[in-house]
Amino acid sequence: MPLNVHMYPGALQIDQSEETDQGKYECVATNSEGTRYSTPANLYVRALPNPPGAPVIMERSATSITLMWDSGNPLPVSYYIIQYRPSSSTDPFKEIDAIATTRYSVGGLSPYSHYHFRVVAVNSIGHGPPSQTVEARTAEQAPSSPPRRVRGRMLSGSTAMVQWEEPEEANGQVVGYRVYYTSDSSLPVSQWEKEMVRGANFLNIRDLTPNKTYYIRVLAFTAVGDGPLSSDLHIIAKTGVPSQPTELKAEVKSETSILLSWIPPAHSGTDAITGYELIYRLGDQPEQKISFDPSSSYLLKNLKPFSTYIFQLAARSKHGLGAFTSEITVQTPQTRMFCVKLL
């Protein structure tokens, strides 16, 4: 008799019963007159479900992973729960429940990212233990943001060096960059000159026409496709003249003041920035100019409330004024009105 089975007068006890103990049971009575059998009784053992088999990766896209797994249970279960989270995360697992099949596609994932997955079976008793955890990475797609911090400076009267950083949302392994440039900004980008760059985050553009303003844009690409182009970078082909400041931003501080901020252009020790020139205008009114010392921000005061202003900024060195940024537009808020009730 198994160690977990105990017999008492008129009773049978099975300790730590398992599903293998279920079946048809009969009580047999024997004496000198013969043997009699009781009416059979069916014993059903119900327990929490076993862990499902380890999930297998069947398909993957840039934003989804399709899993398949073995039930791991001899009896049907009510449903399954998929638990998942980024591999680098220590947050609780996200859950997808009420899954009726042993194949499921988990969507809403980030491209080219690692995730952990596991599966839990549920029956009428409750949730069983999770399966083995597996790791999978989503597929690549084209970058969804342009290269960051595109900047440049003149190395000579006809050669410019352009530098940049990898896109914030590369969505895969960046295999190269394309740099587009022209001195005629009216042309579509498809008609600009272009250079392919692999294995580097900079390019020296040669044979530029001295004293002309050039417009430069950069995109990154993966094995899947091209990402978006960066904003225009403006460079005047003149030795020692700064390129444009980058990432010019405007923050409204009050109804009459706006804080401008930017990243200063790259320069060498002999071409140090000596100041900036700011051009701004109110709607269609004439431009106004302000010159100020080297900085990375400037607070413009005494503006009109509830008005639209347009700004451009250029850096200056001892060799002259560099290229202006593209225009940015910002609106000051309306003056608040207060009502005073006289008693």
TrEMBL record:
InterPro entries in the cross-refs: FN3_dom, FN3_sf, Ig-like_dom_sf, Ig-like_fold, Striated_Muscle_Regulatory
Annotated Pfam families: fn3
Keyword set, alphabetical order: Disulfide bond, Glycoprotein, Immunoglobulin domain, Receptor, Repeat, Signal
Span of the signal peptide: none
Record region (Disordered): 128-152
Residue ranges annotated for the Fibronectin type-III domain, each copy included: 51-141, 146-242, 244-335
Domain of life: Eukaryota
PANTHER family per record: FIBRONECTIN TYPE-III DOMAIN-CONTAINING PROTEIN (PTHR13817:SF73), TITIN (PTHR13817)
Name of the featured protein: Receptor-type tyrosine-phosphatase delta-like isoform X1
